[in-house]
Specification:
Layout (H helix, E strand, L loop, with lengths): L1 H7 L1 H19 L6 H28 L1 H7 L12 H23 L1 H21 L4 H21 L6 H22 L10 H30 L5 H19 L5 H24 L1
């Protein structure tokens, strides 16, 4: 049993579950805690948990050979779980999540789940080593959580800007991570490996500033109030710090970017409640 817990990497899946609740909270505020919205958002959270878990299993299947060297302690290289059984489990997770979404939420939710599964599988089989397209795929999945949470509680329009903010800032962070990993990415065609650190930094700046712009636009058009503005300015300031320290320490830049994204989630939560 412990091997199955390890292969789904539950911490990532739980974070997706929590992010779904936050997106629903952003959508309808404290109305989330009424019985029906709470049940619907919980079902949506379970769907996200299952998709992320299935995606993590697919990741371990696709990396089975390299993990014999890089991560020999993982369940598949250790022989604790076979590739076949892992594949069956991932398909079960994907099918159950799609059925739950389509039956208990709506057909649009089911379609979003199927789309997310297709992107996940496409990333693992084709996009992982392609650089920027792979970064964009991962960021699209991150942003889709907000759309999905909005669909669950019938509040999609206000989620579009949040989707864009998450998509843009996460893409910046993915590129920073690729710069950080350049020494070990000898056989990967990441954007930094193909175009260099300078071009990568310019792209990070572009995506980060665009994300900041959308975060402020969210206040400007009245989606959230002043309390959100204060909270998101703090997050945006940390994003700017991540840019400022990039030339000195890519690792610190990545850490500040991660912190800024967490603060951004806090700002969304505050905005949804206030």
């Amino acid at each position: 049993m412990y091997s199955w817990i390890r292969i789904i990497r539950p911490v990532n899946a739980i974070m997706g579950f929590v992010a779904t609740y936050i997106s629903a909270l952003v959508g309808i505020g404290l109305g989330l805690f009424h019985t029906e919205p709470l049940i619907l958002s919980s079902i949506a959270g379970v769907c996200v948990f299952l998709v992320i878990s299935g995606g993590n299993i697919i990741n371990d299947i696709s990396d089975a050979e390299t993990d014999r060297i890089n991560h020999p302690d993982r369940p598949i290289p250790r022989g604790e779980i076979t590739v076949r059984n892992a594949g069956v489990a991932s398909v079960m997770f994907f099918v159950i999540s799609a059925i739950l979404a389509a039956i208990f939420l709506n057909l649009l939710a089911g379609l979003v789940v199927i789309t997310a599964i297709a992107i996940l599988v496409g990333y693992e089989t084709r996009l992982k080593g392609t650089g920027l397209p792979g970064n964009l795929a991962i960021s699209l999945l991150v942003g889709m959580i907000f759309i999905f949470g909005g669909i669950a509680v019938n509040s999609v329009p206000r989620m579009v800007l949040l989707f864009l903010m998450a998509f843009l800032t996460n893409t910046a962070r993915e590129i920073i991570k690729d710069v950080e990993d350049m020494k070990g990415d000898v056989n990967r065609k990441t954007f930094p490996m193909q175009h260099g650190i300078k071009a990568s930094f310019l792209l990070v700046v572009l995506f980060t500033l665009a994300g900041i712009a959308f975060s402020l636009l969210t206040y400007a058009i009245g989606i959230f109030g002043v309390i959100y503005l204060i909270a998101v300015i703090i997050a945006d300031a940390v994003f700017l710090v991540s840019l400022a320290v990039f030339s000195k320490s890519v690792e610190n830049s990545q850490n500040f970017s991660k912190l800024a994204m967490i603060l951004g989630l806090v700002a969304f939560t505050v905005g949804g409640v206030a």
